[in-house]
Design brief:
It is a single chain. Helices cover about 60% and strands about 5% of the residues. It has 9 helices and 2 strands; from the N terminus they run H-H-E-H-E-H-H-H-H-H-H. Helix 2 runs parallel beside helix 3 and helix 7 packs across helix 8. The relative contact order is 0.06.
Length: about 230
């Protein structure tokens, strides 16, 4: 004899359909979250791949050569004495080396005795150059001096205010920064900059800075914020 289920009481509601519905909603929400996570991961992977390709295509920053590094060392340590061990005897590079502070130039294929003789001479405050380079180096230094003299002449045509502007340009300051530094309007600074370019005979700020550097113009000193007195 089969069992007969008891009659349902009036107002009673089965909990099974609701539980099944909630479970389906939870599954769907989990699926949506998983799909969103996969999409986010794909975007992240694509961004990293794009960045890696950009790094590969980005040109490498030029590294300073030995003569440039020598100049920096000499400025940091004025008592330093340097001998350049050169691969090629080049008058232009030898003149640059002397200007950077080297006092000796030796070819790499020179004998150890020659290298030691140059080092000993440099330690006695002598300057040693191969005789074959001497004429070329003197010519290079003479040309550099002539360029410096011409640049100095051009800079001397500037008014005191224009020289202030030029020093700010050498320091890399833009028009607005110069205006704030010298308490001038940007329009006035623009006029002064145009006058500086015209008197130096150049057409760009970079060219004006190059002339200024040849003339030995120093950059404007950085602004030091006033110190704040500590409260007692």
């Amino acid at each position: 004899m089969s069992a007969v289920p008891p009659p349902r009481r009036p107002g009673a509601v089965s909990a099974v359909p609701g539980a099944v519905a909630r479970s389906a909603e939870q599954v769907r929400a989990e699926q949506l979250r998983a799909e969103q996570a996969r999409a986010d991961q794909l975007r992240t992977d694509q961004l990293r791949a794009d960045q890696a390709r950009a790094e590969q295509l980005r040109p490498a920053a030029p590294q300073p050569d030995g003569i440039t590094l020598l100049g920096r060392l000499r400025r940091a340590h004025p008592g330093l004495r340097a001998v350049v061990l050169a691969t090629v005897d080049d008058p232009h590079r030898a003149a640059r080396a002397l200007h950077a502070g080297a006092t000796g130039w030796v070819a790499k294929e020179s004998s150890l005795a020659r290298l030691l003789a140059v080092v000993r001479g440099v330690l006695r405050d002598e300057t040693h150059l191969p005789p074959a380079l001497l004429t070329g180096v003197i010519r290079e230094l003479t040309t550099a001096r002539r360029d410096r003299t011409e640049s100095e002449r051009l800079v001397d045509t500037l008014t005191p205010r224009e020289k202030q502007i030029l020093r700010c340009m050498v320091a890399g300051l833009g028009r607005q920064a110069v205006a704030e530094r010298l308490y001038l309007s940007p329009h006035t600074v623009r006029t002064h900059m145009q006058n500086v370019l015209g008197k130096l005979g150049v057409h760009s700020t970079l060219a004006a800075v190059a002339v200024a550097r040849r003339a030995g113009v120093s950059p404007a000193e950085p602004v030091v914020p006033p110190s704040i007195a500590s409260a007692p």
